[in-house]
Amino acid sequence: MAEPWRERARQVGWVLLPLRAFLAIVFLDGGISKIADPRFLDDASPLSMHASVTAIRANSPIGGALGVVQSHSVAFGVAMAVAELAVGIGLALGLFTRIAAAGGMLLALSLWLTVSWGASPWFTSADVVYLFALTPLLIAGAGWLSLDAWLDRMRAAHPRDDRTRRALLAGGTALVGAMVLGLAALSRPSHRSRRQRQIDTALPSQPLTPVGDVPVGGAVQVTVRSADEPAWVLQLQAGAFTAFDARCPHQGCIVDFVSAADGFACPCHHSRFDPQGRRLDGPAPRGLTPIPVRVQDGDVRTR
């Protein structure tokens, strides 16, 4: 009994199965989260695709080609979300796997050349990793536990019916994709992001740090206790206190406060933010999340 499993383990389809499953989840999550987030397609939101393209256009090597994306960000945003869903479904089912892998590589390449182009060193960009992670599926296909393999077996047995089967499967897959897209759209929240809601759990008012612990022109790192999240409290001018979530919007690393002039820097992928938390450059898609604060009884507190 052991020998068939050893033989099967040597076959490419089984070897690639964990990678295929992981990439399918990544692309499905990416597509669903974009449709489910009302800010992504809201040009007025600082977290929208429009805002992201505006922020990264100057530093992107393909910035000259991003003008049309910036001008039609909603259409491109929908197309990107649908494309990610299509890639995810194709990889999950192992249907038209090489086409799905090629589409995923195109998406990863576009993100690498835009959103994560500023990552330093360059190989720390997640997008370039996804780009090359998809190459085995482009070359070898899905293999085992895939509809592509089943279709190949059916074509060998009944060659005349192959086109009909593929058309039916493509139609069924498109229907599944439309249902996922519809459910994601229905799940769109009408309020702020999960990240902002996590920080809002600190409300009502909660002490962050004594006023005397925050130097004028400096900052001190604190913990928002009820959210158990790190934050920075600043006093850039005497008596004027501000606070920001300390996690970088890129991949959640804790940002460092550099100075009142230089603001913040992410030690992981080198995104930079000004003292008001606004994104300056790097792979972060937006600025730091602000935390409303006030002074009461000698403490800087959440509002």
TrEMBL record:
PROSITE patterns: RIESKE (PS51296). This is Rieske 2Fe-2S domain-containing protein. Keywords: 2Fe-2S, Disulfide bond, Iron, Iron-sulfur, Membrane, Metal-binding, Transmembrane, Transmembrane helix. CDD domains: Rieske. InterPro entries: DoxX, Rieske_2Fe-2S, Rieske_2Fe-2S_sf, Rieske_Fe-S_prot_C. It is found in: Membrane. Its main location: membrane. Residues 277-303 are annotated as: Disordered. Gene3D superfamilies: Rieske [2Fe-2S] iron-sulphur domain. It is a multi-pass membrane protein. Coiled coil: none annotated. Residues 208-302 form the Rieske domain. The chain crosses the membrane at residues 12-32, 74-96, 103-123, 129-147, 167-186.
